[in-house]
Fold each of these.
Amino acid sequence: MAQKEDIVFPKGFLWGTATAAHQIEGGTTNNNWWLFEKEGTIKNNDSALVACDHWNRFKQDFDLLKKLNCNAYRMSIEWSRIFPQPGTLDKKALDHYVTMINELLKRKITPFVTLFHFTLPIWWCNEGGLLNRDKEHLEHFKQFCDVVAKTLKGKVKFYNTINEPSIVMLGYITGTSAPGQKNMLKAIKALGTTMLMHAIAYHTIKSVDPDAKVGIVHNVQITKPYNPNSIMDKLFTAFADYCFNGAIIRSLKKGKLPLQIFSSHRELINTNDFIGVNFYNFIRLSLRLKDLAVPATDNPVCGKKGLCVSLGWEPYPEGFYLAIKLMHNAFSHIPMYITENGIGTNDDSWRQRVLIDHLKMLHKAITEGVDIRGYFYWSIIDNFEWEHGYEPRFGLVHVDFKTQKRTIKHSGMVYAQIAKSNALPATILKKFPEEIYKPQF
Ligand code: NOJ
């Protein structure tokens, strides 16, 4: 029974968790990230060779979803598994994904399927990858989307086309993620191609399955100048905001790719039935710093307490609210799903705190009229966190990577309670009475 003090979410709200194939499956050795990992680029020399062995243990992991009372699950289908070579379909791999989807449906869990979550087939990258916009080259992606949509028609209703185009672009800016390049012009081109792939995926899925709901996933990056009085910091922050948010929103609304002024790609306009929003942290930027972004340890509260441990990220629940509002202003005519939110930490009570404070903000946005229909925590299990390897633990469920043993964390139990009651129950809220961390501007 709901209590008066409970913070209740709308009826039918989806409570899910999110994953990506390469980060959990194991054996995804036919993609560009695998190549990148082999170059020794990953912290502690980790690789996704085994990851969480989810390819073999998916039933166990879906049972965990059930234990957490989740009614939705976001996963990706690995293009390089379905098409290990150009035009050569691996029917067995495809069937395996069908089995996975069936297992979710059996458990009454609504699948959200992502088509491009950072990994691309090696053969496609050898043809120029995201820097090649030839029609025949992009046709391969279309073929993949077509096969997936035809195969999953009637089973999967929700598709995410691309995961975080701005982060895909980082692989050409910082050099720290695949393909490990540092070239701003290439980055802009790669981002543009990624947006075109979104349009391809959208139109392909809709032509196969007009009832499907298709949307991109954008990682909203909230940035502030490190020194609010410095013109340089302000300019740099405005530029970063444009690259990470503005350019993507503009291309979806106006069909204009980055740097495109006079012409436009009209096929990009109105290509979202819903908008997916990922939100993690807040960054302060300064041109004078060695790393440009100020680490969270600089935050007098969470930094001093040593809370923002794993990635130096600075959690910012109010920023989550701002991110939702930003996307709502741009896409108020379509529903929103929070397709990812979470924290990589070994401190599980910090994870609970962060989860609750973010959900409060999400609820606030709903009460103000934002049509948010679901929330996907990243992630169900600890997994391979790209260039950071296995160190940052994002899971609601602990994974012992030596034995593959899964153990539900306390945060997982809290999430289960929230999902079951479709609310932030007063009993939980009482344990986390006020926010203990706020960024200091
Ligand atoms: C967003 C990405 O989609 C996901 O792959 C990653 O693991 C999380 N952020 C955490 O960094």
Amino acid sequence: MAHIYDTIIIGGGPAGLSAGLYAARSKMDTLIIERSKFGGQTATTDELENYPGSIENCTGPELIERMRKQAEEFGTKFAKDEITTVDFSGKIKKLVGNKETYEAKTIIIASGAYPRLAGFESELELRGKGVSYCATCDADFFTELDVAVIGGGDSALTESIYLTKFADNVTIIHRRDQFRGAKSIQDKVFNNPKIKIIYDSVVEAAKGDEILEGLTLKNVKTGEASDLKVDGCFVFVGYLPISELFTGKIKLDEAGYIITDEEMRTDIPGVFAAGDVRQKSLRQVITAAADGAIAATNAEHYIENEFDELHV
Ligand code: NAP
């Protein structure tokens, strides 16, 4: 018979690691399953200036490693596997992975979100050949070169500032004439001499066969087309939830985010969700970590108060 965990957490980002910490600290038999790298999007973030306490240039990977160690010290176990099927119909929930099948009394889904594509011609063909979705991973390749950044939210602005540490010139291309990102970050962008801004414009195509050579832009107000010679193009146009696995199994909203109540309960008893995969208004490390703590605490309450009463 398979080992039955008290809780299995799907995803090893801030929500999952925080859930692991709280669950293990409550003496729950806890497993975190991560399919690739711990940390999710936080692992690709250079500076976390708005996470309380991280005042000394704390990077995403450093914070994640501390969270992982802390959860481990309290007894959280970890598995590297990709879950391909879930069965939430019984009292014991089942997860089928590429390597193993897992069973638990409760599940906490913390699978996060992934970068949205901008949708220009040759975007996928030139991905990894000049088109990137992670400045922390790829900025180094563009030392003393010219790069473009697409987007106008916090990610585009924050990562543009980071990219100026490497690239000679960073050109932000935004589809409107106002940024969506926080005013304090906008000020840093406006005051950075290495950053140029092209408003009211979208990228229509990336040029280059083997490697990116430039972008074709279109001004959305005038319809005018122009070329921009760049060596790199970083796309930061938002994120999409990683929730396909749960379609038809739990309640999702129209965009695919998991719907929970304030206690992180989904519509299936014993199944909780936390972090960016959840329908919510603020997707930040701090809200992901808070979600994880709430989900784990309620998973514990569920086992104590409801699990034994179930006869499914
Ligand atoms: P976001 O806030 O959704 O912004 C996406 C940006 O991309 C918007 O400016 C949007 O333009 C633009 N966009 C969307 N689709 C596009 C397309 N197809 N072509 C061109 N532009 C497109 O996403 P985000 O910046 O990744 O942030 C996600 C969440 O993480 C937010 O809650 C944000 O506050 C948070 N975050 C916070 C920090 C921080 O340091 N505090 C850092 C990163 C992220 P419009 O403005 O015209 O819609």
